[in-house]
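Morning, I've got a small favour to ask if you have a moment. I owe you a coffee for this, so here goes:

…
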Amino acid sequence: MNIQEIYKLYQAHPCITTDSRDCPEGSIFLALKGASFDGNKFAVNALEKGCSYAIIDNATIKEETVQSEYADRLILVEDCLQTYKDLAREHRRQFQIPVIAITGTNGKTTTKELLAAVLSERYNVLFTQGNYNNDVGVPKTLFGLKPEHDIAVVEMGASHPGDIKTLVETTEPTHGLITNVGRAHLLGFGSFEGVKRTKGELYDYLIAHGCPIFLNADNNDLKQMAEERHAQQMFEYSQHSDTDIRGEVISCAPFLRFQWRNGNQPWNEVQTNLIGSYNIDNMLAAIATGIHFGIEEKQICHALESYIPKNNRSQMEVTKHNKLIIDAYNANPTSMAAALDNFKIMDVSPKMVILGKMGELGDIWKEEHQKIVDYLRSAQFDKVWLVGEEYAATDCPYRIFKDVEEVKTALSKERPEGYYILIKGSNSNKLFQLPEFL
């Protein structure tokens, strides 16, 4: 069966499940494999539970059931994951609507949420839910496309060379932006140049297909990447350059307040619910996109002021004892430096930081953790707790905890009172568990 034939089956049964525990009547089960599971083993069970068909890539299972009642309902393919992506692309091709792809080292999820909020002022928008931004999550998003959608915003993550190339070939975007490029996932990319090449695969696709790029003109790496590829269609935004969309930070105490304007039009002032002056770049990306798609300026301001983060990214939580700045989903040298820079200049007191380790840094892990410790020394925060044994390998004067459980134990005995506390770490650190103890 080729992909067009499989897609005809999907049109008759427009529900794909990859979880044998969730088999809606009449759906199609697709047998994905992972490090600790093989969906092929559950294909027959999925049919028994109500799936109309099961797509598998294990020929032995097909042979074993050749005489059974399920034989004609087991579809053998070479690679289930590739079929999943090809099928999602076939579905995406049924919709002649703008599809905006977003990638970057930091800020892509927040930017995706802001773009969706702005565009929703006028359009019915499909956008990536949560962080479904990999080679399984992106197809899942595309399968959500329905005739009522006017536009789609698709987030794309990467941790190895070629990841973005694969995702754009599945998604076939009509527009795109890279938020930034930084020193993250270096274990997979090999180097910072590897990060730039992989993220730049989005530019490669857009330029090859004559599609526009939304570009942060203040980011020298992104400008260089676009210039090297001879990008022609660029819609630029900036805090410092003479671009169509300009923005300036007014204050960040603690929530970002900024102003922006389109060309020579009057300035618009926006009070956001996001912590961190670094979020102005994410805001300007959403503004530039909104202007390009015809959203009125007052609608853009309304969307940005109404957006409230709920995903452990740049959000504020006030407890009975402290005021927490929670950024506990992503941590790499670039995002860590941005969060600490912002916290340092915030006019609040006293200040405490709880920082998690940074992963996937390869051979430079010790060097990068030492840089964080050195920064903390210069910043002179009132209290510093560090989580992760990586910090124990540095020249560090601060209190170090093995993991979040040790932190919770300490907090049960000596909870800080009256502090502004920055909680920054990757999701794997599980620092998002700390607010209830603070």
Observations:
- The first strand starts at residue 16 and ends at 17.
- DSSP finds 15 helices and 19 strands in the chain.
- The longest helix spans residues 192-208.
- The mean pLDDT is 92.
